Amino acid sequence: MNETGIPNTSAHDVASYNILLNGTEPLNPVYEVLSLTLTQVVNKIPVAKIVLRDGAAADQNFAISNTSDLLPGTKLTIKIGRDGSNKVLFKGVIVHQGIKFRQDGNPVLTVECRDETVKMAIGRHSRYYEKVKDSEVIEQLIRGYSGLSADVEATTVQHKELVQHHSTDWDFLLLRAEANGKLVIADQGKVKVKKPDTTASAVLQLTYGASLMELEAEMDARYQWSSVHASAWDYTGQQLYEAETSSADYTEQGNVSGSTLAGVIGLQHYELAHSGRRAAEELQQLTNAAMLKSRLAKIRGRAKFLGFSGVAPGDMVTLQGIGNRYNGNAFVTGVRHEVAHGSWDTHIQFGLEPDWLAEAYKDISDIPAAGMLPAIHGLQIGKVVQLQNDPDGEHRILVKIPVIDNAARGIWVRVASLDAGNNRGAFFRPEIDDEVIVGFINDDPRDAVVLGMLNSSAKPAPINAQDANDEKGFVTRSGMRIHFNDNTKTITIDTPAGNSITIDEASTSIKLKDQNSNTVTMDTSGIKLESPMNVELKAGVNLVLSAGAALSIGGASISAAADGAVELKGAIAKLSSQGITEITGSLVKIN
């Protein structure tokens, strides 16, 4: 390696390039290329931009634009080198062209090409995955596109379920790679997904005063962590899963460590939290990824030097002569080649932005309300206006959101229920003027759902809150109740007039009572019927009264009658009275 300059085997040091259409056809040599820029950055799709002189006012025409050579869809191969010894640095497809002229400038045609991985970034998809590792999903996504190949470093966590919700395959791939501490590098239709290797040998040495033409570098303590701590909720054990790391597999540039810089702010832990159930191993991978991201963000910058085709994102470059704070091996995260006016310069980017990709690119997630109208966020308070006469017959109720328009009648809203189905379900509608909590499907204010009802001091609950929380139940507007008490283990169903059913486990009894003081009691003594008035037993066919011991019938008077025969039978029979005993019949037979 040339320690003070750029490796260069050319004889005349003249920049040269080739542009091939659809792989083999050279770009028309008559076309004047004003500039050529190739950009390749980790976690981004490589792009090439070509600016050509085109357009003539006298002809009122843009001749090159009119040809089919540089129409979107044309595949381009771009080679850059010196003295005609050129190397392929870009392959892609034209996605955009534009023309431009200004009053004081020459007319130009601008052509933009993207690596064919651009296919993965167009169109949103939703999918379920089961029993897969992230690396398997990533590889599956890449290989789902013709012309793309994958080189994916294996991940370790196997997900029982993984869901892609209305995102591009490219964005989903990026976020799953990032969560595993891996970078995505697209290059000529091949997608590499790997952790940065900062132990690799440098492909180039750049020295201030020799090979370095420009340099910007900065060190920032705000994004350096002494440790990363993550937590998630384990509902099976009703406790937190926790993971932590205080180091990263990363060789640092410069002579000030990330841990030393972390002491400037003094944050004990950089906290990550997920309220769902995430496996401990997945949580550990996330903390490792966050710490690696922190160290990659310690020193960030760029350098410019004479054109060199031997450096790419993922390589190491040695920087010298820029002071001990910044000297050392830098991890390359981006490369830009610029060819213009016969010269070729290369720029590298080193270090990485500290933001998570979902923070940096707000369009990763789908836009609220599908962009059809301004969205409404979170939950809102509603007031019930009307229950009947849904104009669409969809069992909705009319609810107004006071903060939208308190003078309006509101919007027809569906009601979430404990159970709902075809002619079945838990059926509890709120009352008119009740306060309800309202959510919105896809954050669209037109698609509202009542999620529940609310109590307050203005609309108090029928049961006062206690930490013991023994009492639960249902109370209707008129005062009808179903009441549960976990302390006494009783269930009571009653009405305001005093009709009730009480199931009491503590006294091992069930009692039915009506508002007329008629009662039926079932307990350890048996069954007892009581009434201050009459008790009538009536059977359409037979009525059988039997007892294992004695059967007693008593009253001020007893009358028994039958339309047919009457038979009294026993081992011993006795008939007696305090007064006259009378036995009559058309014929009386004794013995």
TrEMBL record:
Domain annotation Gp5/Type VI secretion system Vgr protein OB-fold: ranges: 381-454
Q: Name one Pfam family in it.
A: Phage_base_V
**InterPro entries per UniProt:** Gp5/Vgr_OB, T6SS_Vgr_RhsGE, Vgr_OB-fold_dom_sf
According to UniProt, the name of this protein is: Rhs element Vgr protein
Top-down, what is the taxonomic lineage of the species of origin?
Bacteria, Pseudomonadati, Bacteroidota, Chitinophagia, Chitinophagales
